[in-house]
Design brief:
alpha+beta, single chain, Pnp Oxidase, Chain A, 22% helix, 8-stranded antiparallel beta sheet
């Protein structure tokens, strides 16, 4: 197995093709990692979710790490790490970007389910649990891959 660095352009092309990532945020030096579905445009990843722990943490500490990978086999994989800045799109001044996020995410079937379903499998219909979109602005990235 030969591990190679991915160029910036290879990393961006890989991010564009994928849709599942793990985001890592930290609260008082305690890490919290969760999977999210995303869409990419420009220098941002867009995510749909319900209020909860991850949003509370990212609002307090907007520095978020994103890991996106593809595992074909033990010796054939790609992995990209992205340093980002959380951007809350809940305000009315963000309406246009929020609409863009919705449009991008809506290209995938059932894109809303992970953000709208609780572990019971039921759609959350409590008005206090209003869904929201957020963006993760890319600050830096790096990638590795194998050539098998």
């Amino acid at each position: 197995m030969n591990v190679q660095l991915m160029s910036y352009d290879e990393c961006i092309a890989f991010i564009k093709r994928q849709w599942l990532a793990r985001i890592g945020c930290a609260d008082e030096n305690v890490p919290y990692v969760i999977p999210v579905q995303y869409s990419y445009s420009g220098d941002r990843l867009y995510v749909f979710t319900l209020p909860g722990k991850k949003l509370d943490i990212m609002r307090r500490n907007p520095r978020v790490c994103v890991q996106i990978d593809q595992l074909k086999s033990k010796h054939s994989w790609k992995s990209v790490i992205v340093d980002t800045r959380f951007i809350d799109l809940s305000g009315e001044e963000c309406r246009e970007e929020k609409d863009q996020a919705w449009s991008l995410l809506a290209k995938r079937t059932d894109w809303w389910e992970p953000g709208a379903l609780k572990p019971t499998g039921r759609i959350v219909d409590n008005p206090s649990h209003t869904h929201m979109f957020f963006a993760l602005e890319i600050i830096d990235l790096s990638g590795r891959k194998t050539d098998d």
